[in-house]
Specification:
Length: 131
């Protein structure tokens, strides 16, 4: 996904969450049957969960909520991969919700549970086909 597309999708997600948050404070009217209170609640919960990941945490902390994105290639989670400073991760309950993570540089040639997060993007939605 190109950076511009990510920006557009991230903006759309932020707008959707803001609209949902505003709508959650107002009761649905008889004419407004499209408001889904359960969906609004779920989106809010996901957004808050994603915000729990922050710089200073480790890869092990991140792996509890997110799964590394491998582009549709089946890679066992136990298989060590080469260390990469920038990686994309999918939210475990819904792999369409993604975050980009930068790790602090490491001497290791492989990923380690102790790798430290330097930067985390805002969550965004990526529904592109995988595999």
């Amino acid at each position: 996904m190109k950076p511009t597309q990510k920006l557009i999708v991230t903006g759309a997600l932020i707008t959707a969450v803001a609209v949902v948050a505003l709508a959650a404070d107002q009761p649905a009217t008889k004419t407004d049957t499209s408001y889904d209170k359960l969906l609004a609640q779920k989106v809010g919960e996901v957004w808050l969960n994603c915000q729990k990941i922050h710089p200073g945490m480790t890869r092990a902390d991140l792996d509890k909520m997110f799964r590394r994105e491998t582009g549709g290639v089946a890679v066992p989670e136990s298989m060590p991969l080469p260390f990469r400073e920038h990686q994309t991760f999918g939210y475990r309950p819904c792999d369409h919700i993604m975050i980009d993570v930068d790790f602090r540089p490491s001497d290791s040639k492989q990923e380690r549970p102790t790798d430290v997060i330097a930067r985390v993007s805002k969550p965004y939605i990526d529904c592109s086909p995988r595999g």
